């Protein structure tokens, strides 16, 4: 990345949202923040682009994102019942999964790319979505606000308040305001892309690829070494 970059900055808030951590089967644990695959999925959806475009965008790494968790008012759980095959005769049964849900989660999201036209298209689509914007499941609709195209400069400080993908960084945590709800850094492995075969008729089975621990936290700061940090004078973020 250069010393100065363009990025689209926007705020999103949902009433109830969930971002399933992979590799959990009987219990759907949620990330605190939407992974990159979910964010790009929402952008492709509101741009009214194809599923093929979604996978190509992830594979090409044209987009980099960053997320700041502003607030999560609470966490709830629900039970989800679904049909399942119980025996060799093919009789259907019912299984129940417990799912984590986030209540009124609010984020500031940054998206950057070397392709200025792509950023302008994303900015226009965020202001005037072609479909209902959702993060997580299809019915987990979010409100999009404060969309702007901003210039960000490489920071001289080594403190961030965005989540990041742990690629061997050394970091320490600093809590500045104990009056707010604090979530200390936690790691859950997230894919940054998918391996998938696409043809005109259908999509083959997709496999998670480029799996890295996603470090997420709220209302604290992380002092991090060896990371390229950008700032818009509002947040200090790392792109991935």
Topology:
Elements: E1 4-17, E2 27-28, H1 36-46, H2 51-60, E3 64-85, E4 92-112, H3 116-127, E5 142-154, E6 159-160, E7 164-165, E8 171-174, E9 183-195, E10 207-218, E11 221-224, E12 230-231, E13 236-237
Parallel strand pairs: 2-4
Antiparallel strand pairs: 1-4, 1-5, 3-4, 5-12, 6-11, 7-10, 8-11, 9-10, 12-13
Helix pairs in contact: 1-2
Give an overview of the whole structure.
The protein is mainly beta. The protein has one domain (about 5-235): Alpha-Beta Plaits. The chain is about 15% helix and about 45% strand. It has helices spanning about 35-45, 50-60, 115-125, and strands at about 5-15, 25-30, 65-85, 90-110, 140-155, 160, 165, 170-175, 185-195, 205-220, 220-225, 230, 235. Strands 1, 2, 3, 4, 5, 12 and 13 form a 7-stranded mixed β-sheet that branches. A hairpin with a 6-residue loop joins strand 3 (about 65-85) and strand 4 (about 90-110). The protein is globular, with a radius of gyration of 19 Å. The chain starts with a strand and ends with a strand.
Give a count of the beta strands, DSSP E runs of length 2 or more: 13
CA-CA gap between termini: 11 Å
Q: How can the largest sheet be summarized?
A: 7 strands, mixed
CATH level-1 class: Alpha Beta
Number of domains: 1
CATH architecture: 2-Layer Sandwich
Fold-level CATH name = Alpha-Beta Plaits
Arithmetic mean of pLDDT: 91
Shape: globular
What ranges have pLDDT less than 50 throughout 5 or more consecutive residues?
A: none
- By DSSP (H or I, 4+ residues per run), the number of helices equals 3
Helix/strand-derived class?
mainly beta
Q: Which radius of gyration do the C-alpha atoms yield?
A: 19 Å
The amount of helix comes to 10-25%
What is the succession of H and E elements? EEHHEEHEEEEEEEEE
């Amino acid at each position: 990345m250069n010393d100065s970059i363009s990025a689209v900055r926007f705020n999103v808030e949902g009433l109830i949202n969930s971002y399933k951590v992979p590799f959990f089967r009987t219990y759907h644990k949620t990330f605190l923040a939407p992974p990159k695959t979910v964010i790009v999925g929402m952008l492709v959806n509101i741009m009214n682009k194809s599923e093929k475009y979604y996978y190509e965008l992830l594979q090409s790494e044209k987009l980099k994102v960053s997320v700041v968790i502003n607030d999560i008012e609470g966490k709830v759980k629900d039970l989800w019942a679904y049909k399942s095959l119980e025996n060799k005769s093919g009789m259907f049964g019912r299984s129940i999964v417990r799912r984590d849900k986030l209540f009124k989660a609010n984020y500031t999201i940054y998206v950057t790319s070397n392709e200025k036209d792509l950023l302008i298209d994303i900015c226009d689509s965020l202001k005037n979505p072609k479909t209902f914007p959702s993060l997580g499941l299809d019915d987990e609709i979010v409100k999009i606000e404060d969309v702007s195209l901003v210039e960000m400069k490489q920071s001289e400080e080594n403190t961030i308040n965005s989540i990041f993908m742990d690629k061997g960084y050394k970091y320490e945590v600093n809590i500045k305001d104990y009056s707010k709800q604090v979530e200390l850094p936690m790691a859950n492995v997230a894919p940054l892309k998918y391996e998938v075969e696409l043809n005109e008729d259908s999509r083959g089975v997709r496999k998670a690829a480029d799996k890295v621990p996603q470090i997420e936290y709220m209302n604290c700061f992380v002092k991090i070494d060896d990371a390229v940090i950008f700032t818009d004078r509002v947040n200090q973020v790392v792109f991935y």
